[in-house]
Structure formats: C-alpha cells, structure tokens
Amino acid sequence: MSTTGPETPTPEAPVDPEEGFGLSTDVVYAVEDALAVEDPALVRALVSDLHEADLADLIESLARDARQSVVEILGAELEADVLPYLDAGVREEIIDQLGPQRLARLLSRLDSDDAVQVFEDLDEEFQHRILSALPRAYRQILEESLSYPEESAGRLMQREVVVVPSAWTLGETIDYMRAADDLPDDFYDLYIVDPRHHPIGFIPLSRALRTRRPVRLTEIMETDMKVVPLAMDQEEVAYLFRQYGLVSAPVVDEAGRLVGVITVDDVVDIISEEAEEDIMKLAGVQETDLYSALLDTTKSRFPWLVVNLLTAILASAVIGVFEVTIGEIVALAVLMPIVASMGGNAGTQTLTIAVRAIAVKDLTEANAARFVGKELLVGVFNGLLFAVLTGLVTWLWFGSPEIGAIIAAAMVVNMVVAGLAGTLVPLGLERMGVDPAVASSVFVTTVTDVVGFFAFLGLAAIFLI
Amino acid sequence: MSTTGPETPTPEAPVDPEEGFGLSTDVVYAVEDALAVEDPALVRALVSDLHEADLADLIESLARDARQSVVEILGAELEADVLPYLDAGVREEIIDQLGPQRLARLLSRLDSDDAVQVFEDLDEEFQHRILSALPRAYRQILEESLSYPEESAGRLMQREVVVVPSAWTLGETIDYMRAADDLPDDFYDLYIVDPRHHPIGFIPLSRALRTRRPVRLTEIMETDMKVVPLAMDQEEVAYLFRQYGLVSAPVVDEAGRLVGVITVDDVVDIISEEAEEDIMKLAGVQETDLYSALLDTTKSRFPWLVVNLLTAILASAVIGVFEVTIGEIVALAVLMPIVASMGGNAGTQTLTIAVRAIAVKDLTEANAARFVGKELLVGVFNGLLFAVLTGLVTWLWFGSPEIGAIIAAAMVVNMVVAGLAGTLVPLGLERMGVDPAVASSVFVTTVTDVVGFFAFLGLAAIFLI
C-alpha cells in the first residue's frame, strides 16, 4: 500500500445486516456453473477474492468431484492457509489428492501451530513421508510439537513469542521490535522474563503504546498472570480464556521456562468445538459427520444405535414380563409408551443441564447435593402435574378411572426417577472419570424406559387383575 | 507497581495441570464454614484474592441464604465487575438485595458494554429508578445502548474506541495516545477514519509498535476490514469473529460512521452461549436453569413436557387403532417400542448434525440436497443392518419368523423416514424462519414414533391376522 491520501483506499462495502458475513450461496452456485462449463479461468476469478476461511467453506460445500476439480484448477495458487480451516474429513481427501511433496511445500508456509493442526490428523506413514520432505529446522519444530499429548496446550501454542528481559525500558523494547525480523505476525502482549527465562509479568500492547520511552517494563507490567503448563488439556485452556477474558497466555515447560504463547483466535475454535462436542456426544454422532463419506457415516453411527437396540430390547423384556396382563387389558399396551416417553423427556431435560453445567464447572461437588435435591423436587412437582393430566385423559379415553389412577401413579414414580437419574448418572460418570456427555443419555433413558414400563404394568398387574 | 529489579515481583505459582484454573471447591467449603461460624472477617479474607469471575462462581454455587450473607458481608467492597459475570437468575436475586441506589453506584463504575449487559435484564420500573440515580452523561449512554435491539451489535459494543485521522503519522498517533486520558483500558487495533468519520482501515497494535515514527498510517493500515452494522444480530457477530479469527471489529451506524468497537472477549461468551443455547433448546430447557428457583424451573420445563405429552398421546392413538390386532398377538405390544425407539435415535442423530450445521452455516441451500440424499442412504444402510439384527432377535425370542420379517420391514421403513425427517424438518423450519433447534426434535420423534408404530402394527395386521 503506497497511497497517502485519506480518500484513495476504499474499504469493503458495508455488509447487509440481513445477509450477514461468510460465503454466499451465490458464489457456490457460480463456481458449480463454471465447473460445469469447464471454465477454469472463471473458477480462479471467482475464488480469488475469498478469505481463506470462506474458500475452505466453498470447497467443503461442493460435491466430491467438484472439490477435486477446484483444487486441481487452483494448483500452486492454493493458499496453505486454507488447510487449517477445512473440516478434517474434507482435508484428508484433499491431502490425498495433493500428495506428500506438494503438501510439504504448503505446510512449510504455515505458522507452527497451524501446521501441527493439519499434520496431527495424518496417518503415520504419510507423516513420515512429509517430514522427510520438509526443511530440517521446520521438521524439528513439528516433531517437538507432536511429542506433546494430543489436545494439549503444547499442540495449541505458537512458538513465536515476544519476550523481553526485565531490565529493559520501554524505549529499548520498541527499538528491539522495530529491528527484529523473527517476531510473530500478530501478538497482543509482551512477556517479561527473568534471567532463567521464567515469565514474571506481561504488558498489554495498548499499555505499551501509551507509555513513555524511559519507563522500565517492570514498572508497568501486570504480575497477576495466568500461566499455562505445556501438558494442560485444551478444554482447560479454553476455560481459562473464557473465564478471565484473556487474549493471550504464556505457556511454560516443566522447569517454568517460557516456551510459547496461546492466542485467543486459536481458543475461539476450541470453545465452540467443546460445546459442539457435547451436543454431538449427547446424540451419539461424530463431529465431522457432515462431510464424512457415506460408509464412514453409516459406520460411525452404528455403535450408538446398537447400544440403543440393546436398551430397547431390555425395555421390551420388561414388557414381556407382563404379557399376560396386557393380553387381558389391551388398553395397557396403548398407554404404556406415554409413561416411558414422559420420563425420557424429563430425564433428558435434567441431564442436559447437568452435562453442560459440569462441562463449564458450574456444577461441582460443592453444589451437587443441592442440585440433585432441586431436580428431585422438580420431578415431584411435574410428576404430580402430569399425573393429573394423564390420569384425566386416560379416564376420558378409556372410561376407566382405575387405569387413570394407575397411569397417574406410574407417572409420578417415573418423573421422580427421571429427576434422580438425570442428575446422579452424569455426576456419577464424572466422578468415575467418564465423560458424562458420552454415556449419560443412554443410561438415563434406559432407566426411565424400564421404570416407566415396570411401574405402569406392575401396578396394573397388582391392582387391575 | 514500583519495583524495578527482575527478582522482586513474584508471579502466581504455576497451576497444577490436573487441577486446572477457576474456583476451587475448597474455597467454597471454606466460605460455607466461615458463614456457619459467623466469621465475616474470614469470609472477606477468603474472597479478597479471587478474580471477579471466580467470585461470581462462588456466589452462584452457594445456597441462597449463604449468597445473601456474602453480599451483605462484602457490602461496599463488592466489586462492580462481579455483576456481569453472574448468571442472570442469581444476578436478579442480588440486585433485589442491593436496591436501586447501591446498584446505580456499582453500575457507574462499569464499562458501558458491561453496564448495559447488567441493566438490560432488569424490569422496566427498576430500570427507571436506577436511571434517575445515575449521573446524566452515563444515563444518556445507557439509554442510547438500550435503544438498539436486544442481542444486537449495538448492545455488545463498547463506545470507547481509538480513532485516528488518516492524515496522521505513527509518531503523531503515539504522542496523542500518550497524552489522552479517555482511551479504553484494553484495545487491539487502531481505527483510521476519513473526514466523514467513516472507517477506512485499521492497524493492529503489534504492527504499530514495530513501525518507525515518520511512517504515515495509511501506508501500513489494513483495508481488508470487516465492518459491523449497529443492528446486526450478536450471533452473526460471533460468526464473524470465529470465521475470520478477529480480535476486534469496528461498529458503524446507518450513515457508515464509526460509533464503537466489539472486542473478542465479549464475543467469546456469545460463541459459547450460542452453541449452548442449541443444546438446551434441543432438550427443551432454559439456559439459566441451574440457578433458577425451584418453581421457575418447574414452570419453565412444563411447556416442553406438555408438547411431548401431546405427541405421546398421538403415538398412543396410533397404537389404539390396532387394539384388536394386539389383543390377538400380544408379542406385538412387547416388540413395538423397539421400532419406535430405533427410529427416534436415528432421527435424533441426523437432526443434531443438521441443526448444528445450519447454525454454523455449513449446511446451506447450496448443499442441502446432497445432505438429504446422503442421510437417506445412511438410513437405508442402517435400516437394513438393524432389520436383520432385530428380525433375528425376534425370531429367536418369539420363535416366529413371520413376526421377525414384519419387524425387519418396519425397521427399514422407520430408519429411512428418520433420515428424511431428521434432515427435512430442520431445513424446513430454517426456511420458514423458525429456529430449528427449538422445534426439530419434537417433530422428528413424533414422526418416527407414529411411523414406527404404524408400520409395525399395520404390517402385522395385514400379514399376520
């Protein structure tokens, strides 16, 4: 940019608040049309102005063969920055298409944290082939990053940090930064280290810019600083940034030396991923499902459905115990799903609250007993309300106050059990070190199905036959 | 801070990677104990070092009367910054306790965006009483913020922005910043405006710090800038920050003038809230459920359960049509929940993927047809697999290959319907402008229940009787 007048540079037109940001579907259709008429120049022109994140979205939303054509057409122009934005399923496809040589060339243009993100998903043989095609220094950085546990701060961090000795003044710091050529592109805080390279404080850039040159760094630095150990899980890092509204945090090795920095842009992805993972786990699906191949998707959904088949068979076995009773009063078969279904829904409400509250540390040992007690009472109240409603509906429908009374009693029992199971199951799984999002909903709905059928049919067998 | 040597300031002890950040339950127990022995000095000492976010968590996790005691004990020492961190339910409780005069004093110490966040949840009469107790200038800012739609960029933004005219050099800018006393506490970008106060570019602070004084701002500014209109929905703002990895974005009014800035720390909360809202909506619960009063929680869960009762009754009515058939073959009553339950689970898997993909703009008109087609095929494949499994189990259990064949056929039908309903329902709701997270799961499970019972019992009525 060499313009100097205020009127020359024109920013983008303001966005339409209704339409919003991101890739427009018009671009997707235009690219599809250009591919259909085999006009590579038009494809190139259409994607040339897209932000890497939007180009990644475009590639994802195309059909598989169109995707490959676009990558082929872009060829050497394909920006390395697109790779980290791609969904893992689609990225794998494109990496296969690129081959190790071209991929190694692309990777070497990325920041270390982005390269690791792309690299860690590859299978081992592919990793080896790429490593041997990379420049030595870069290879070492990648290998070291990969030596940290998956989803740890070590994988997430960027090695390029602005570190300044504690004896410097602000003026010296600015002179150093103006001369240095190995600083990261974007950073938000300066880290001050002692002679052992331990971080002792930080200075937000906005403060540095407002301070006069002769001021010593230690006079204006913040010492109330959250330091992240290399091995910390990324979920905990995300919690840290969210809880304290941070934009960057220093990462230290076991000896307490500053080895990298994590910035908020990397954490924003983790924050939404972690909440998203919980939604997906609760429903028994894989995160990357949208772009997985048909057979992979079918396979990935299979185990959850098998578990649910087993629990459904268990519930059916409970019904089977009362075959004789049902044979005598068929109305029971008509009504029995209501009790089970209401219990399942009430239980799911409670467990959803519990799973998220545990994930964001709102629900801990300290308030668990109060939470269980409250949900139990909610179960009692809603159980009584729906007992009356369902009892009356049943009475009117089948003209039998006795069946109405029985379904009402079973409803109270099952809603109370739902409140208990919806709280105790996730809390118990958490205490056992199992992720409550993965297993809670199967357990809870099994309990409410079994208890629902058993209470309703059992009471009927006792009092109606 | 007036120390100058590198050894004097001691940072916090490094965190235990296993234990993590945030409020420790030990502190909660210690505060509860201190309250039990009525030792206000100990309570004050225990909370004095807590970050505002952790103090908010502490207040939330206490029982209601303990909460009020802590607020009472802290009295004037209660930091205003705690308020925005509190869950809305608990905040309301504490605001009632504080009363308008004390609240107004606290609010006036907050940044405009945080004050608005606390203020907007209050009821109107309370708002009026607080407004009249606030200093005039501050009142005007609050009133203007409240004039923007709820959950819009206008409510989210901070009015304090660093704006520089395009004719300046970096040196002039730094001199201005060193002299100014009305700059925001933390900022990440400098915004360059033309004479009409339209933003024409921005300079990240890290770039400003590395640039020499005589350089003109327009030479180093970025013009590829995303500008947020005042009326834009916060969900769209969150998307913008996440998609492009931003740390701040300028907000403009309808005439295109720069009126504020949104920073990433505000958006991080929105990002996790938006994903969280979807989990909660899918399960039919309110976000703030954990700390709501018992009766509020019971009431808030009631409507969802009523809708589910109605759908359960609808499903029962379908069973009722086949009462005679069930009377003749009671095994049908035992087996029928299996078909409905498997359809419900398969449908929930699909709709969860669809709801989240729509929310993050991965699923759009451009790839909807492909997605529906894929889910239909997944339904066919899994339907066939589970038809075989369930058919065999049924044959072995009841010794009847005929019932086995019927349940197998019903299973294929219901799994395919689940794939269709799981995609078409959320896509249809989205097109009608209804939030797919709110209504999808009721619709889909109603469809799979009704179709499941109807297919199984209907086929049995045709072929077995």
Summarize the structure.
The structure is a homodimer of 465-residue chains. By secondary structure, chain A is mainly alpha-helical.
Number of helices of chain A: 21
Poorly predicted runs of chain A are 1-12
The share of residues in helices of chain A is: 55-70%
**How do the helices and strands follow one another from N- to C-terminus of chain A?**
HHHHHHHHHHEHEEHHEHEEHHHHHHH
Largest interface by Cβ-Cβ < 8 Å = A-B, 165 and 166 residues
Strand segment tally of chain A: 6
> What is the overall silhouette of chain A?
globular
Strand content of chain A: 5-15%
Question: In CATH, what is the homologous superfamily of the largest domain in chain A?
Answer: SLC41 divalent cation transporters, integral membrane domain
Descriptors for this entry?
Tetracycline Repressor, domain 2; about 5% strand; about 65% helix; 3-stranded mixed sheet; MgtE N-terminal fold; disordered N terminus; CBS-domain; 3 domains; homodimer; about 475 residues
